[in-house]
Automatic annotation (TrEMBL):
Pfam families xrefs: AP_endonuc_2
Catalytic function, reaction form: alpha-D-xylose = alpha-D-xylulofuranose
Protein name: Xylose isomerase
One GO molecular-function entry: xylose isomerase activity
Enzyme class: isomerase
Location in the cell: Cytoplasm
The organism of origin for this protein: Clostridium sartagoforme AAU1
């Protein structure tokens, strides 16, 4: 097999004083934290689309990335070379998982039958390489947004023929995900949204999306696919109004159509910030509702209003994310997928590794800090103290369902001396800094 990253060594942990760019400073995969290794906690995943398929193009210019696996005209040869490069990269980074869209791994043919045949051939090769390298598929998904046929959407298109095509594509993507032992299947509504209500039947589109998801659930049962189904919220881009805006919107949608028992969420950092939330907010909301499924870890740029998908290097956000994950008891069947790409000007193949190392180190250190925070319990104690009034007297009655408007009025009329206490936000933020600085 060709070595695509010949200049890059196997990346090892060298500790925080290392000056070696091609070494981990914080991610020590076998280090045990709270009874689990870092490797088990973090389930790092390579995103096939950003790492192998993307080329660095933007609306103003063509691709810039060096892609030594992409120098053939035969697209199937390219697909195989790309897959070999993918496994070499995962292996050198010590990453156990990958995730893909159907069209990332195999090209489209002249019709659906040929496209499916291409996919089958590549999936067979993928299975072989998974065995050789001992790698696992975190999730599969269908790219039902890139091809011009999806210009009006896939499961929310105005065109019933396109709807049928999208169903056939998702059916096949589920089959190949099952074939490769995928632990999850993701639905990201790429073009499921709209631009103007002047041409949109909002109710029909949402009903059709629910019907589509129900058909997917039924088919999974039929073929015995036991992976977790995940919906990935995003508020905008490519459409102005994406139906799966954020965790709260998706939850309401699922409950409305009786689909909530079948789906959890795949939450992405950059999508959270585009929706005007923090990543921590979205993850916490999913956690308390029992729908935290998996994570797409990256970061946006606060000065740019679009989905920049950068490698996560912000330790503050990483710490607060891992704090939620630990409070959830881990990420379960999900994982931490780097839905991240290097900048257009970081076009050398080595940059791919440097991006992953930066992200893996940041999350690893975030995990360490968050674990310490939970172990010492200062923040949990502060929260408990803040809500103490609900542990006794009238507060306890409220929580136990023993109060009603009349009893509360009676209480308020006789206890009008209300005293509030400071929320101590600045103190808590300073304490958080202390954890970060000291680790
Ligand atoms: C795009 C999404 C996409 C999903 C998978 O913004 O992040 O990559 O994760 O379709
Ligand atoms: Ca994503
Ligand atoms: Ca994104």
């Amino acid at each position: 097999m060709v070595e695509y990253f010949a200049n890059v060594p196997y990346i090892k942990y060298e500790g925080k004083n290392s000056k070696n760019d091609f070494a981990f400073k914080y991610y020590n995969l076998d280090e045990v934290i709270g009874g689990k290794t870092m490797r088990e906690h973090l389930k790092f995943t390579m995103s096939y689309w950003h790492t192998l398929a993307a080329n660095g193009s933007d609306p103003f210019g063509v691709g810039t990335y060096q892609k030594p696996w992409d120098n053939e005209t035969d697209q199937m040869k390219v697909a195989k070379a790309k897959m070999e490069a993918a496994f070499e990269l995962m292996d050198k980074l010590g990453m156990d998982y990958f995730a893909f869209h159907d069209r990332d791994i195999a090209p489209e043919g002249k019709d659906l039958a040929e496209t499916n045949a291409f996919l089958d051939e590549i999936v067979a090769y993928c299975k072989e390489l998974m065995k050789t390298y001992n790698k696992k598929l975190l999730w599969g998904t269908a790219n039902a947004f890139g091809n011009p046929r999806y210009v009006h959407g896939a499961a929310t298109t105005c065109n019933a023929y396109v709807y049928a095509y999208a169903a056939a594509q998702v059916k096949k993507a589920m089959e190949v995900t099952k074939e490769l032992g995928g632990e999850n299947y993701v639905f990201w509504g790429g073009r499921e949204g709209y631009e103007t209500l002047l041409n949109t039947d909002l109710k029909l589109e949402q009903d059709n999306l629910a019907r589509f998801l129900q058909m997917a659930v039924d088919y999974a049962h039929k073929i015995g696919f036991t992976g977790q189904f995940l919906i990935e919220p995003k508020p905008k881009e490519p459409t102005k109004h994406q139906y799966d805006f954020d965790v709260a919107t998706v939850l309401a949608f699922l409950r409305n159509y009786g689909l909530d028992k079948y789906f959890k969420m795949n939450i992405e950092a950059n999508h959270a910030t585009l929706a005007g939330h923090t990543f921590q907010h979205e993850v916490a909301l999913a956690r308390i509702n029992g729908v935290l499924g998996s994570l797409d870890i990256n970061q946006g740029d606060p000065n740019l209003g679009w989905d920049t998908d950068q490698f996560p290097t912000n330790i503050y956000d990483a710490t607060l994310l891992m704090y939620e994950v630990l409070k959830n008891g881990g990420i379960g069947q999900g994982g931490l997928n780097f839905d991240a790409k290097v900048r257009r000007a970081s076009f050398e193949v080595e940059d791919l590794f440097l991006g992953y190392i930066a992200g893996m180190d940041t999350l690893a250190q975030g995990l360490r800090i968050a674990y310490k925070m939970l172990e010492e319990g200062e923040f949990e104690a502060a929260v408990a103290e803040r809500y103490k009034s609900f542990t006794e007297g009238i507060g306890k009655d409220i929580l136990e369902g023993k109060a009603d408007f009349e009893s509360l009025e009676k209480y308020a009329l006789t206890n009008s001396l209300i005293k509030n206490k400071s929320g101590r936000q600045e103190l808590l933020e300073a304490k958080l800094n202390q954890y970060i600085f000291n680790e």
